[in-house]
Amino acid sequence: MNFGEAVRGARTERGISLTNLAKGLGVTKVYVSDVERGRRAPFNLIRIRQVSEILGCDPFHLYVLAVRSRGHVTLPTSDVSEEQSRFAAELSYRWGDFSNDELSRLIGVLE
């Protein structure tokens, strides 16, 4: 399942129209439809949180699908602590070096 399919599935399962979701997000229904059909990139994290609140679904699940679709993650580092910036840089720099076991341990810490 991709991001758009997940949004459409949650929306239709809950009986929320394309128009009502678009109004809740402050966008056009064409924009939402394009995202659902994969014609546009997935929503950003702020919109994902809004969609999740409107649809009553897990924002993290949608975010993971969005990241997979985009093929990258963007972390803002200008308005965070020095430690947060260092962590983001360290993670990015060493990304390809982590074993599955190390990734599992990191995920466990974050959960």
Describe this structure in words.
- This protein has about 110 residues and is mainly alpha-helical.
- It has two domains: about 5-70, 434 Repressor (Amino-terminal Domain), CATH 1.10.260.40; about 75-110, no CATH class.
- Helices cover about 65% and strands about 0% of the residues.
- The protein is built from seven helices and no strands.
- It is elongated.
Summarize the structure.
The chain has helices at 3-13, 18-25, 29-36, 45-55, 59-70, 82-94, 100-110. The protein folds into 2 domains: 3-70, lambda repressor-like DNA-binding domains (434 Repressor (Amino-terminal Domain), Orthogonal Bundle), CATH 1.10.260.40; 75-111, no CATH class.
Helical content band: 55-70%
Strand content: under 5%
CATH class of the largest domain reads Mainly Alpha
Largest sheet: none
Order of helices and strands: HHHHHHH
Q: What's the average pLDDT? A: 94
What is the domain total for the residues? 2
Task: Offer a few descriptive terms.
434 Repressor (Amino-terminal Domain), about 65% helix, about 110 residues
